[in-house]
Structure formats: C-alpha cells, structure tokens
Specification:
Distance between the termini: 33 Å
Number of strands: 0
Structural class: mainly alpha
Shape: globular
Amino acid sequence: MSRAALLVLADGRFPAGGHAHSGGAEAAVRAGRLTGAHDLASFCRGRLHTSGRTAAALAAAAVLGVDPLALDEAADARTPSPALRATARKLGRQMTRAARATWPGPELAALAAARPRGAHQPIVLGLAARSAGLGPEDAAHCVLYETVSGPATATVRLLSLDPFDATAVLARLAPEIDATAQRAVSDAHRAVRDGPGALPAMSAPLLDITAEAHAAWPVRLFAS
C-alpha cells in the first residue's frame, strides 16, 4: 500500500470534479437549515452516517473485487433521486478520466467501456484505489472524507463561513469517520460473501428531495 497514493486520491485538488458540487449544502443554506458551524457539523454528521456509509461500502466492495457492474446496479437501487443518480454518474465519468490517467489498468478500462456515460462515482473510486494498490479501508476513508469535506468547503463559499471553523468541524468528525470506515469495510466483506444485495441502503430522504428542487433552480452556484 502507498500512503502517497492515498493522499493523491483523497486530495481535493485531484481532478475528479467534486469541487463543483455542494453535497446538498446549497439547498440547505437556502432553506435556512444550514446557517453556521454548528449546523454544518450536524449536516455533515447526517451525511456521514447515511449516504456516506452506503457509498463507502460500495467503494470498499469494489476494492475487494465485487463485480463493478453489479455494484453499479446496486448503487442505482440505493439512489432514488434521478438528480443524484445523474450527478453520481457525471462525477464517476470525471473520476474515470482522472483515474485512468493516473493509475491506468484493465478494470478501469473495462468499466469505462461498459459504462461510457459514467458509473457511480464510489465504484470508480474503489477501482481507482484498487489500481493504485490501496485497500478497502483506504477507499472507504476517501469516500467518507469527501462526503463531509465537500459540504464544508461549499459552506465556506455560500455563507462566508470562517474556513478555520469549517476545518475544525472536519477535525472533530475524524473519530466518526474512522469508525464509519470500519463499518463500511465490514459491509463490503459481507457483499463479497453474499452479493451486493448485502450492502447497506442507508439514505437521507431530505437530501433526495432537495436535490430534485436544486436541479430545477435557474441560477445556482453549485452543480448539485
């Protein structure tokens, strides 16, 4: 395993397109549910333990060698919002381009050929981690960190929140990120044994609802 490769994959400057997405924060800010650092901590914690754990388990399962096309179907079934499915595939397509340029391999190439419009982003990230020689817990950590860092960064821009306060929120969430990554890896091992249907299907219905509303806004700062 290469710690340097893990840093590259988790780096917010990795050209996978995540900077253009708020993870639901923009809609939450407009609705008045996200007004400062305290709300940001609650918002990120909610994402971490619902859609974040589901995505992390998908990524970890991809690292462990579960069929990525079966995982892609499982991700579709766990993403009821059409807007979020489209976002996940758009981010997956961009992640595929970045990963194939960075850690080219036959599995990434095969997935790109089978899903030319993009597979769900966590599955592509899992295959990228596998191609980079990383393990399932590494992939889970990458997904979970992105799950909370994306909204944190977006909130700094949306509310002019002090970036020190936003970073402090992420630092305080670190123990929960670690614990959730371990749970996601356990979920992934069950999928190896019992198939993708054994993966968690945790979701946040309000994020699904607001994603659909956000997609219809004529003017917005973030793509999702």
